[in-house]
Amino acid sequence: MAAKQTPMMEQYLKIKAQYEDAFLFFRLGDFYELFFEDAKKAAKELEITLTSRGKGEESERIPMCGVPHHSAEQYISQLIKKGYKVAICEQTEDPQQAKGVVRREVVQVITPGTVMEGNIIEEKDNNYLLSITPFTEDKFGLAAVEMTTGEFLVTNISGGLEDLIHEVARFRPKEVVVSSSFPNEGQAMLKERLGAALSFEDELANDGLVNNLIEEIKDKELKNTCLQLIQYLFRTTKRSLDHIQRAFYYLPNDYMGIDVHSRRNLELIETLREKKKQGSLLWVLDETETAMGGRLLKQWIERPLISKTMIENRHQLVETLMERFFEREALKEQLNGVYDLERLSGKVAFGNVNARDMLQLKRSLQEVPRIFDTVKELGNEFALKLIEGVDDCHELKELLEKSIKEDPPLTITDGNVIKDGYHPELDNYRDAMRNGKTWIASLEQKERQETGIKSLKIGFNKVFGYYIEVTKANIPNLPEGRYERKQTLANAERYITEELKEKEALILEAEEKSGKLEYELFMEIREQVKAFIRPLQQLANVLSTIDVLQGFAEVAERNHYVKPVIKENGEVNIVDGRHPVVEQMIDSGDYVANDIQLNEGRGMLLITGPNMAGKSTYMRQLALISIMAQIGAFVPATEASLPIFDQIFTRIGAADDLAQGQSTFMVEMLETKNAVTRATKNSLILLDEIGRGTSTYDGMALAQSIMEYIHNEIGAKTLFSTHYHELTTLEEQLPLLKNVHVSAVEEDGKVVFLHKVIDGAADRSYGIYVAELADLPQQLISRAKTILHYFEQGTHREDHSSRNIDSAHQEIVQAREEVAPSITEMQLNLFGEELSPNKKELEKLTTKEKQVLDKLKSLNLLHITPIEAIQVLDELQRKIFKK
Ligand code: ADP
Ligand code: MG
Question: Domain DNA mismatch repair proteins mutS family, which positions (predicted)?
Answer without folding.
Answer: 683-699
